[in-house]
Amino acid sequence: MCGIVGAVAEREVRDILLEGLKRLEYRGYDSAGLALITTDATTSDTRINTVKTVGKVNKLVTATTKAKASGRIGIAHTRWATHGKPSVANAHPHRSGDDIALVHNGIIENYESLRTLLKKQGYRFDTDTDTEAIAHLIHHYREGNKHSLLSAVKKAIKLLEGAYGLCVIDNNEPDKLVVARSGSPLVIGVGIGENFVASDPLALGQVTDRFIYLEEGDIAQVERESVNIWHKGKKVKREITTVAHQNNDSDKGRYEHFMLKEIYEQPKVIKDTLDGRISKTSVLEQAFGIEAPGLFDKVTSVQIVACGTSSHAGLVAKYWIESIAKVPCQVDIASDYRYRDIIVLPGTLFITISQSGETADTLAALRYAKKLGYVATLAICNVATSSLVRESDINMLTMAGQEIGVASTKAFTTQLTILLVLAIVLGRRTGLKPAAETKLVKELHKLPSIIEKALGLKKQIKTISKQFSDKHHSLFLGRGIQYPVAKEGALKLKEISYIHAEAYPAGELKHGPLALVDNKMPVVAVAPNNDLLGKLKANLSEVSARGGKLYVFADESINFASEKRLKVINVPSCSEVLAPIVFTVPLQLLSYYVAITKGTDVDHPRNLAKSVTVE
Ligand code: F6R
Fold this sequence. Notes:
Number of strands: 25
Structural class: alpha/beta
Radius of gyration: 26 Å
Distance between the termini: 11 Å
Number of helices: 18
Number of domains: 3
Oligomer: single chain
Bound molecules: fructose -6-phosphate
CATH architecture of the largest domain: 4-Layer Sandwich
C-alpha cells in the first residue's frame, strides 16, 4: 500500500527519504518517487526537482543519483495503483505548476467533479490519478502568492471527500512541509533541528524514535525547528511518544524469504504473546489493562470484525468463545459489516482483529461500531501504535514482531493464541471452572514446542508440493473449527502460488463442489483427532470414489494410512483446542513450497499489498 516520507533538515535529506521508502517497501507498491527543493549554489534560487520511477525503490535510487537530485527539504512516496495504471506519470509526487508538489495516501472519491471544476479554471491534467486534483486545488487557493501554503491546504481539504494523508511542499516557502490527515495515518518524526513526516513510524527509524501521531482531521506545518498543529481551526498540542525498536527486521537471515523466516519464528512469537499473560495455571487478565476486567464483566455476547486472514482468526475464535465461554459470537467481514444494518444486543463486546491496525475497512467498521452502543471496543492487533489500537477502548497485542511477507503467517497464529486466551477470560465469568482453566492454560504452554515439531514436516511437504505445481485448481476441506483453518490454507495457496484454491466445510461436498472432483483435482484436508473424524473420513471417501487426489494432514495419533491417491501427512499430536493453530503451520509450508516450485515472488505476490489502507 502507498507510503509517505517527508523531511526538512539542515543536512541533505535525499538519502533519508530513500531509506524511508525502502523501509516501507514490504507494504507493496508499484512505483515510487520523490521531490526535493534544490538550491542553486551560485544564485541561491530554489526549484523543485522531481524523480519518479516504476518498480522497486532501488530503481528510484539509481534515477535520483543520475539526476543529481539533492535538497534539505523533500517528500517521497511509494504508490500502489488505485486510479490509473502504474506509470511514471501516475507515480507521486504530483505537481501543480513549478511550485507545488504533493504526495498522497488514500482515495479522493469526488476527484472527477474536482477535475471538472479545475479544468474550468484552466488547469491541465497530465495523470489519471485522483491526487493531481489536490495539487491543482492547493495551487488554485494560493492565488499566486496571496495566501500561504498552509491556508491554501486548509481551504483545499474542505473540498475533499474520501480519505487522505497528505504532505505538500511549495517552492515559494522552501522551508515548510504541510501535512493533513483524514482517514489515512500520518506521523511526525521529531528530531533536533530537523523534523520528518511518514505514514508509518517505521520509515523514520533511522533518524528518530520520537513521534507525534496526528489525529483524524489534523493539519500541521512542519519546519526545521518547529511543529505546529491545528484541529478544527484551533491550534492544538499533541503529545510526543517515544517508540522503541524502529528496526524493520529487514534481515532475512538464513532464510530465502521473509515468509519462511516468519513461519519459522512462530514458536518464539507465540511464546512472546503468552509471556506475562498466563501463569503456570491461569490467565493473568490484568495484563490487558486496568479497565479490561471491569469491561469483560459486562460482556454477554461478542461481535468480531476483520478482513482476510484476520477474519479467519475470528471464525476460529467463534468456536472457542462459544464452547469455552458459552457466549454467543458473531463474525463479520469488515467491508460488509459497515454497510449493513446492525442490531446490537446489550452487553456485546466489539472486537477488531488486525495485524497492521491500519486496514481501512476494519478501522471504518470500528468507527461505525463506536456509534452503535457496544459495551466496549477491543483491538487484537500486532502494532501497538496503530490507529486501531489507539481508537479502541482496550487492546490485546499480539507479539509477532514485524511481519514483512505479504502473506500473513505468524500474525495469524499469534492472533489465534490471544483469542484463545480471551475465550478463557470470558469463560471465567460464565462458569469455566478453575480446573478447566488450568487444563487450557497448560495446553497453551505446550503450544510453542508442538509448533516447533510441526515445522519438522518441511521436508515431506516440500516433496509433495511438486505435485501441485502444474495444477490450476484445488479444494481444501475441514469440518467445524477446522473449516476456517482450511479457508486460511486455501487463501495462502492462492495468494502466493496463484493456484485457485477453494475451501469448503467437508460436509458440504456432496451439496455441489463434489462435481469439481476428478483425477486432476488435488484435495487437501485437515484431520485432527476429534469427534468429527468419522464424519470427515466419510467425506474423504466421497472424494476418493471420484478419483480425486487427497492430501490429508492428520493427527499422528489417528494412524491414518496412506493409500493409492491418498497421501497422509502426520501432524504432531495435539489437543482438540490447539488443533486450529497447529494444523495451520503445515498448510503455510505447503503454500510456500508450491509457490517456490512455481517460482512466484513469494514475499510480494502480484496485485497485493501488505497493509490495505484504502477501502
Ligand atoms: C493474507 C493477508 C490479508 C490480511 C488482510 C487484513 O495473507 O495478510 O488477508 O489479513 O488484508 O490485514 P490486517 O490484519 O492488517 O487488518
